[in-house]
């Protein structure tokens, strides 16, 4: 066995180096015992412990000597089967003990001790020779500097803050030695004496001198040494500074202030060593090299000290800040390029740290920021001069033949090319100053106290410089096309427009800062001026028509008369900035409405309109018209992305709807698709000599077209973010392709866009709320994948591997992993149209046997395997029957909260009978139903599906046992046959029919009422006052009278649909058969009416007759639709909940109910309250009718989301984060007229409110409900079960009267927008 590195001279060198490197730890120890304890635990505390040569050689030796022995011991224990089951630690300890007692270990240990003893004794014997005179290896240069972002010439290879330097003597100098060092450093002593003194300084810890009483004298003499022209003294003094900066002790403050004082002296010296700006900077000059190295040390310390200065007293940071700003304030009166002024310290620091990282780090924490900004008030010229440089640079870029392009090129080559530079021209120095100033001011503007420096008064300036004026000047650097007149060989990280774009994007990322600084019309006008140039033809046309033009070329910011069309880089920079603005809510509103942010006073001259016009025309190839080059696909894609950021919100879609971007994108996408198909099809060529080049070119072209195609699909897909946008997407016919694209990205876990990490889950839910959306999701394979992943969590996966250790099972039926999949499944099964599409007319498989590894792939399979578990074969096919069946019942419970879904499932699968049968079988010897997880779930579902009622009209049993009770842990009776026990049915008093005097009653009974609109206006006033002040007087009979009197009047003044004559006969009605779903719905409605006591006997025949009349009447206004959607194949698939509600409101009176519904059908509000009214209706535009998307979803749902985003942003965000949409839950509530969610009185008031006050109150009411539930919504967003809460829980505590004032305030703000949108239902 070799002992290389662990014996002889090698071992001695390794131990010597170890001692030297551990010197700081030894010095920090107060005595021998502490030092010993520190060294014992060094491996735990020293980050680089294993990098030391001695440690590496020792580890190698142990591995070499003991590894075979350890492996033999492990194998021996394994073969003997002696592994203790009590834990792995017992086995490890046994093997360790066996190895320690082995002969190889004892031999190695004995020999290692002998070698170590010999080496240590020799080191102690020659201690002075080994450690006293610095004979061990020294580092090369103390001014080591190696950072990728710097671009100065240097011979060093390491950073001064992370290198190893000569650690010197291990003995502390005494007072005589300190006095001697101080005396020898005096400027009157000869060079040799001062050199010896500096060597002594560098052989000891700097702290030993700084903490001594002689430091003031040493410091003064050190300052003299640093100013000496002698190279050796310069080198030693900078080495001392470097070594001092390597520590994190508070004494570094003294060294930093010393260095700053030295630099201040250099700039204030009369020797004239500082060159003038116009003469440039020659790095080969020794004096300049010395200054550059000093500044580099200063800057490195500035960036490192932020990591630990909070540990020390306030004096530490205050002295550092004061000395820094004192230095940087020198020569702060410099003028433009070409003047005779001297270089300032900031010119030097700008070369070393052009992006002002020192300032950015100092501004990061409040601890330093507060003090820095306070001191900057004292040294205000630093900020003033930074502003001056920015303004001068912006103005000078307009000059012909200026040097900016030249030196921006050469300056960039310093870093990118890695070439050695020896000279910097004055223009380059000023450009570096400009970059430094931009980053400094950009950081300053991010903070309130930083913005207080503005406005700034400049000499020779008529007006002070405001933040707006400064930012406009910076924007000009970006948008001025003159900066792109020279060719660019590569991307330049120090190109001015790129740097300014970066700063502006940083400002935009701080929404509050951007709102204060950037969201100004003047700035936006300047920013979009190149885009406006492309639209100059349209601008001139608009001018001739008298329309105000935003950012027009001949306005204040007309920069392009003498220049070519702005280049691609300019347009992309602008797009980057605007995209960052559009990523925030306030930024989007600024783009859409301008500085006033008045959405109700919209103008077509806002930034959003300019961008949309440009994007549309660019997509269609209509710009430019002057023969110049058209925008590239990259540019068009960037501006299309900005439009997407706008139209994927409800507000943005409202603004951009007029441009029909969805149709334009589809048109361009289809052309790209055809071109892509042609590009990938090889064709034979007669001339094969250039085949290789043509093939490569064609291949690259094909890739570009494919990327462009994906870009268009991606932007088209984002219309699905809102309800109305989803309708537009469906009408384009590209729903399936977009869903395929989304699923491909969703499967790869890709984020939605560069500004949105999440959102596909929300989009899937929005899409799945509609029948065509569900079909598209099925075709992509999303549903199959969802079911398979769910099955893998509950039961088994398709590629399960054998496990040596079984996975742990949660004690909860729905654990965290399965809960996530349940929410995903419920999101796509939330809406009745989607459920109808996947389940209608589809029988259950009900196989005689199922395989253990047979995985369901469809929703029907899922229902068959986990919900309708009605056979032994299904039970035995489940590995975890109780948990999996409970999961299925939980899903069923949420699904049947939608009454139409309940009726569909019951009419097709009779799940109630299945659950009742299962309850009957689950009994003990006393014939009592056993309390277990499944019986409680079944009981809850049976009660929920049988009883109808609001929060106070029915009692739902819990799904768990109260374990705190010793007896009667479950106080509700279980049952195995209907009807449900009385314990679940609260007693409801009869409805009062006594007429009470009130304003509304008097108004409706007036003998000479007003006519037409005057009557309606008075009725609205009386009704609203009554709802606010006396809602309890609004009884059922009064609301019935209101409808009877009001509808004939309203049908004459607000008719939207024609009043067709009813042609049904008794024989025709008898021939009309109601579906089983309709029959079950009638039973439920009658049962609810009897429970409410609004009807007093079984009036099933009347309700059946009314529904047949309605169905026949509506069929007269329907036309057959050629569609693949099951939902559109026949008459309305759900139950007519509105007709049933009116029937109960009129006390079961068939004639009154029919008369009301017949006249009501002419009103526009009938399309939203009476859902079957517009099913396949001839009154709808054909594309809307064929879409299979109800106006209740696309219009009401969209407008609800619009108001939420503006009025209740927290609620809107909670829905977004939960992956559930407000439109979907409101569609659910409204479709069934709030049955099961509100009490009967509130339901009646809802109907009257929407009819009398206007159908837009349907939107305001839903917003009020969500406002009422805001606290609960936020809580359930945190627990990730928002969809379960909103669907299963009634809206308790909500009364329309309490929110009437709020709804009226919404009416004042939004009626013009929402009411007009909802009544435009018949227009294409």
What does this structure look like?
Its main location: other. The protein has 1324 residues and is mainly alpha-helical. It is built from 67 helices and 2 strands. The chain has a two-stranded antiparallel ribbon with strand order 1-2. Helix 15 (286-304) crosses helix 17. The longest helix has 28 residues, at 53-80. It is globular, with a radius of gyration of 41 Å. About 9% of the residues have low confidence.
Write the layout of secondary structure elements.
Layout: H1 8-21, H2 23-28, H3 32-40, H4 42-45, H5 53-80, H6 88-100, H7 103-125, H8 127-132, H9 175-184, H10 191-202, H11 206-210, H12 215-226, H13 231-245, H14 252-268, E1 281-282, H15 286-304, H16 314-328, H17 345-352, H18 357-362, H19 366-378, H20 381-396, H21 404-416, E2 423-424, H22 426-444, H23 448-451, H24 467-479, H25 496-509, H26 511-517, H27 521-527, H28 529-534, H29 536-544, H30 568-582, H31 585-593, H32 607-619, H33 633-647, H34 650-656, H35 661-679, H36 691-717, H37 723-732, H38 735-747, H39 760-767, H40 771-780, H41 782-794, H42 816-828, H43 832-839, H44 859-867, H45 872-876, H46 881-895, H47 899-909, H48 911-921, H49 933-946, H50 999-1004, H51 1012-1029, H52 1036-1053, H53 1066-1071, H54 1076-1092, H55 1100-1115, H56 1137-1145, H57 1150-1160, H58 1166-1169, H59 1182-1187, H60 1191-1207, H61 1209-1218, H62 1222-1231, H63 1240-1252, H64 1257-1268, H65 1270-1278, H66 1282-1288, H67 1300-1319
Antiparallel strand pairs: 1-2
